[in-house]
UniProtKB/TrEMBL annotation:
It comes from the Bacteria. Residues 12-58 form the Helix-turn-helix type domain. InterPro entries: CBASS_pafABC_assoc_protein, HTH_11, PafC-like, WCX_dom, WH-like_DNA-bd_sf, WH_DNA-bd_sf, WYL_dom. This is Helix-turn-helix transcriptional regulator. It comes from Marinicella sediminis. Residues 137-203 form the WYL domain. Residues 235-310 form the WCX domain.
Length: 315
């Protein structure tokens, strides 16, 4: 436990107690030596002006004094979240949103400064292969979501490069792997569809109220899918991984219903449910010779086909 963490823990202990607490008890609660307990008490009293008193039974707070530790205490994950949020806001700023966005960014900077991060730009979060949407598209999608209005969009299919005009009811906005996606009820297809924001060419807010889809229905639509793709689970992939070549894979989380089986000291077997295999194949490809698809046979065949297609480019 870090010193600053012990200071906040000690403050919490003293605020919750109505009687003095002994140094021996604090040694156990703060997970430290007696000398460290005395140093933490001295720091809280001398540097933070905490109203700490002591008697033969231990230390306690003077209840007549009003005291709170300054600032907002954040852990590493919360600090990282604020840094990522600040970067997302900066990336999505448009002319019309510059002032309100800046107010939010100033607030984030203030909180980070209380954590000791004076200049967040000294900490880099590099989004690999990011796909940024047009700021106007992002703003219109956000407005449609909040006002529960249908959206008219001109959408370009990524594979066929075809344009279609869609009327959609926005349901949820998702940031996934450095790209933004809109879950929406497509009134052309009469079903839930996923739209990549950078593929939306034109957008306008419709006058009609959006169709409502329950959270349970939306969750069920994506519950068994792998990655960003939807649909019920149809297959289970078996992927053998050499952990000598890719040791980090034992800590990776691929799917909420995955099962990891240790085969020997150098190999694990991943069981991963999926519907659409496009993202799964890409994730296995990144492991190179460290991974081998064992089942199902249809996935093995498609994997081999892609490997042959890649090889043909270099032949």
């Amino acid at each position: 436990m870090k010193k600053i963490d012990r200071i906040y823990v000690l403050d919490k202990i003293l605020k919750e107690r109505r009687t003095p607490i002994s140094v021996d008890a604090l040694k156990e609660r703060l997970e430290c030596s007696q000398a460290t307990v005395y140093r933490v008490i001295a720091t809280l009293r001398d540097e933070f002006n905490a109203p700490i008193n002591s008697d033969e039974n231990g230390v306690y707070y003077d209840r007549s004094a009003q005291f709170d530790l300054p600032g907002i205490r954040l852990n590493a994950e919360e600090t990282q979240g604020l840094l990522m949020a600040a970067q997302l806001l900066e990336d999505l700023q448009s002319d019309s949103l510059q002032k309100p966005m800046q107010r939010i960014l100033d607030g984030i900077d203030k909180v980070l400064q209380q954590k000791g991060i004076r200049n967040r730009r000294m900490i880099q979060i590099i989004p690999a292969l990011s796909r940024k949407p047009d700021p106007n598209v992002f703003q219109q999608v956000m407005t449609g979501l909040q006002q529960q209005k249908k959206l008219n969009i001109s959408y370009q299919n990524r594979q066929q490069q075809e344009h279609t005009e869609r009327l959609v009811s926005p349901l949820r906005l998702t940031s996934y792997r450095n790209a933004w996606y809109l879950d929406a009820w497509c009134h052309l297809r009469d079903d839930i569809r996923l739209f990549a924001l950078e593929q939306i060419q034109h957008i306008s807010i419709d006058v009609e109220q959006a169709r409502e889809v329950s959270t349970a229905e939306l969750r069920a639509h994506y519950a068994d899918s792998y990655g960003i793709f939807s649909g019920p689970m149809k297959h289970t992939a078996e992927i053998k991984i050499n952990t000598d070549m890719a040791p980090w894979t034992v800590f990776e989380h691929w799917h909420s219903q995955q099962h990891m089986e240790k085969l020997d000291g150098s190999h694990i077997l991943l069981h991963i449910p999926y519907n659409d295999n496009r993202e799964l194949i890409a994730d296995v490809m990144r492991l190179g010779p460290a991974a081998q698809v064992l089942a199902p046979e249809s996935l093995r065949k498609q994997f081999k086909t892609q490997l042959r297609d890649i090889q043909s480019v270099y032949d």
